[in-house]
Design a protein that fits this description.
The protein is 30% helix and 27% strand. By secondary structure, it is an alpha+beta fold.
Length: 222
Amino acid sequence: MRNAVKIDELIITSDNSGAIGQKEQDVVQVPDEMTSYFSARVNFLEQLANFSKPTDLILLNFSSDAAWQRYISGIQKFFEEVNVEFPRISGSTETNIPTLQSGVGITMIGKQFRNEKTVENLHWYSYGMPLVGEQLLATPEQVADVKKVYQAFNEGLIEQVMPVGSKGVLHELENLGVMSQNSFPYDETVSAGPSTVVLLGVEQNQMVEVEQFFENYLHSIK
């Protein structure tokens, strides 16, 4: 179990963003739809890492009434792109106090469809490049494609998915007990922002097919 709470067969994950959006004092200026899109993306990958499919979503909106529908639109866009049924949505908006910077939180509830497997004998790859803020906006093609990850997972090409967050690739590898046998084409200690890098655990007999399937920004770790 990683970055989640498990209650019976339910998996609960969460993600939040602050000072990223359309308000004048936001540190990173992007459409609210983009903020919620990437927050939904992080949550979805955490669900997948725990072998769970999302059924419900709770949206906490600290920005404004007007931002609510923009956040919903970004979430819808993500689920349409990965071709996954849109979860039920509930939530709340802060309307008592106007805020100077944007804030949004998403909690996702999913149903676990299989138990976790051992990762000891898997070969690991990193997919995507670590990007944050303006870097992400400048080079979106370097972001791990979640649609491809989900497709490969469903087709049995990969056994385990591990999204990388603010603590970097090396931190996630240490949690897995994996030691890299190769150098990295990037700084493995820097933040991967909204999981722009995903670790993929692959059976040895699937390695060639996985490398052909993903091609770009796929790096063999062990």
